[in-house]
């Protein structure tokens, strides 16, 4: 459906303010119920046995000893699952291995037992015989013709013949003539960049509680970004009808894309089915790191041609992303987004999707984009600085604007890139002096943003308060923004509305909380549902007044006669209309169901100051400012929170975080001690500047904000560290040993 | 399999429970006493989501055995508010949007309370180092640090 | 006729054409028309695509109207986190 609402210039009363979030008290008192916080009578503990090998054929599984152990109520292996539809075949194989294990931590069997202790003991009694196979975890190794092959016959028709079967797909974007563009350049920067795999690092491990009756009806309580997705996927894997599986989303302790797929849920349902009892499963942190969905590690070649005035004459990038054990790395998103901030005559990107013996990559906040931006924004920076040009001015000169033909194809409508760059230029941060061993970096970033299937139901209670039911887990304050938009549209106070996240039995299909879609799409449906309720309330008032419903309008929370000919009636408030609803036709509600297409793209510019310790190679972030277009900030505090959170995840990615595999293909740092995410003492305050260039596809102008904020930091920090070090850093993370090595190499040369 | 009998005090209430020798205090709180406000993020003492105060000392409840609670005085997030009166830190966290998903929030509040009991006027650096054992992945810590410092200022003014 | 811009690797499957023309007034007619005219595109169309119509991205809406002078770009299916 097209969203051609003409943007009204309107004065907002609620939108743009900063009210307390409705779930605040539950979350500061410990009352909020997250995935692992639910219990059921007779509940069993489910646990998973995982592969100790990176790549092996499963010769035999003997669970007889485990089954004989007192307290063990069910054991599940792949043999318990039947044939499944093709679109969930990899999902099932990832949840429970078939013929082969494909990575360290791959699930091979599961038990349900009367206690955690019995479950642990049972896992040790399951005998698995493996035939160990050669493995490959590095993306550049995996594409070599003689690399160990994970899957035969999965290569797409887009891949030229003769390449390793691990290369699954090729994608290519762009326009113009790269060679001709490079000839016009006064300087060409050509480099290869590498980034390590990182994890979303949500603090809440995956957890669920499944029950299934012998009649085939099942319930699932689960921590997920999308309980409708969980329902549909699990139903397909278990051969159930979707209507027989009701899924309720718990509060969610972070996701960032990592909870957009299933890992435990089909297994928990199968255990519950076999045991005839509720089964709760909770991952340990090491299971989260070994066997959920980190992002790709990448290797990217970039070629940038620039004139001495700073004009980019050609931009080329070849991107290789390993997406773990199954096809589908986000390389195409990287290839489409990397040059999106620029207006280029000659631009081309080439992406290769590669499989390796690592856990299957899941989405991670703007999946695929940060790595491409790291490589491309680093090269642009190097080219600009090579001519002694101001990196912000060079970005402004080449920046995309309304009417620019984007590197991925379409022509942009009104966009906010240059607004973020102009704001950056004027900000005191840009002109602040730097000290010794310090450097400043800037970079731009882009993300598409999505809409998708969305349902909202808005009900007026008899006393005239309002309840809103929506189907997207509240991962960062979205109940507050929905409540605000409903209150805004109805013209009533914020505290008169309560928003809940409904289970899958209560609303139609809802797309996952992803693609920065919720405030945009669910907000849109909330506004439309409120409009429907207003229309009905105007009709009721018209009935009471005995006038045409067209002669009634809604303003400031009340129905009013519209114009002098409608008659003189005092306004009838929402509460007054609600009180007589039974007398005027029955309960009043509004609802809206839509595939909310037409989300607006979003841009950001980040600026960062760093200081290097030349003795240890460690990098301190001194100052950080985010400039981003939010379209319209519904609750500015939570928009700032998204900007700050994305920037800090980017800081972790740039400086510390990495998946480290040994030569044996085993993950060596599966814990928060060794997989180190940023802590409070690593960081300064993160300043934010919210730009508001309205999205014409949303009644209030809202754009998604969640993902764009992680796109620029990798490059911004690399540009800052490179300046401070006097050496171009091309590999992430820029951990102390790596920076120290770069400094030493420079000193020796 | 003989369980251990433990007598302790939790949020001011005399409490008895049975536990396995291997059960952590976190297991006991969550699975035996139904106090699920204390969260498990790692089980290895790295994330601070399970922070509680034991005899006034901040500890990761995943690193202490349940049996070690014998005779102690334990404070969890569930005891932070007084009736329907939120602790100033709780109130300020809501007002200043110092939480997004909320999973780290109980541990951070317990840790911050422990800091303010010791140091009513902490510098930003002191707050950052005190909370360095509490991981938050959503907020980038900015609003958390500000909320703790503002609460400290409010509490100083009020006292 | 609607002019559709194809991304590079997809162009290879459409006899090398970066721009193709199909008779279509809606998104559904466009996707059906592409598959019919260029059978080489079918695997990618079946894997799922996104379509930009005048700068707005659509995934599934069959009856989204397309004007003859609309700018239409076939994109890889967008994913988010």
TrEMBL record, chain A:
Residues 29-134 form the Aldehyde oxidase/xanthine dehydrogenase a/b hammerhead domain. Keywords: Molybdenum, Oxidoreductase. SMART domains: Ald_Xan_dh_C (SM01008). InterPro entries: Ald_Oxase/Xan_DH_a/b (IPR000674), Ald_Oxase/Xan_DH_a/b_sf (IPR036856), Ald_Oxase/xanthine_DH-like (IPR016208), AldOxase/xan_DH_MoCoBD1 (IPR008274), AldOxase/xan_DH_MoCoBD2 (IPR046867), AldOxase/xan_DH_Mopterin-bd_sf (IPR037165). This is Xanthine dehydrogenase, molybdenum binding subunit apoprotein. It holds the Pfam family MoCoBD_2. One of its GO terms (molecular function) is oxidoreductase activity. It comes from the Bacteria. PANTHER family: ALDEHYDE OXIDASE 1-RELATED, XANTHINE DEHYDROGENASE.
From TrEMBL, chain B:
It holds the Pfam family Fer2_2. It comes from the Bacteria. InterPro entries: 2Fe-2S-bd, 2Fe-2S-bd_dom_sf, 2Fe-2S_ferredoxin-like_sf, 2Fe-2S_ferredoxin-type, 2Fe2S_fd_BS, Beta-grasp_dom_sf, Diverse_Oxidoreductases. Keywords: 2Fe-2S, Iron, Iron-sulfur, Metal-binding, Oxidoreductase. Coiled coil: none annotated. GO terms for molecular function: 2 iron, 2 sulfur cluster binding; metal ion binding; oxidoreductase activity. Its EC number is 1.2.99.2. Residues 4-80 form the 2Fe-2S ferredoxin-type domain. This is Carbon monoxide dehydrogenase small chain. It comes from Roseovarius tolerans. The gene is coxS_2.
TrEMBL record, chain C:
SUPFAM superfamilies: MoaD/ThiS. Pfam families: ThiS. Gene3D superfamilies: 3.10.20.30. It comes from the Bacteria. This is ThiS family protein.
